[in-house]
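Need tokens for this chain, all 187 residues.
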Amino acid sequence: MKAHYSLLIFFLCCSVTSFFCAGQILPPGGPPDLTPPKILETSPVPGSLSFQGETISLTFDKYVDKTSFQQSCFISPPAGRLTYEWSGKEVEIRFGDTLRNSTTYVLTVGTDVKDTRNNRLAEAFSLAFSTGNSVDSASVSGKVLDPKPEGVMIYAYRLNRMNPDTLNPSHTLPDYLTQTGNGGLSD
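Here are the structure tokens for all 187 residues:
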């Protein structure tokens, strides 16, 4: 009977040792992942009218770095401090304030968002929706002429509500903002 216990202990030790000696890493090989992340789904869908929700959901095609996302996500006009709830490749964004009536909002996800392989979003993503019966069709387009134009912030103000001579962007929040993508292009 002692021989059986000794044999059992021997097999148990071998099993434990081989388990801990086995490498717990992904297999090597294959080309590196160089594709930028993409947003596959949104809720609400682009152009939604009469939006009354308190959150927006985005689904990516791959896992993204949460910190880079939170630093690159903004909404115009401002809707208070945004909070984020993650579930895999999906993020739910909660507004800090109640949305204004009959207002077009644009959620922008900037190009600083990276996936877990450090691939950046190829271009800024914008989701326009309205709490009213129509979505404003205004747009900003152009090209930033700079040696490194990617990620430049574009601010737009409704000048009919203020004196343009006293506008100070360091103190006044813009009505609309976006960010340039690859090559400095903005749409």
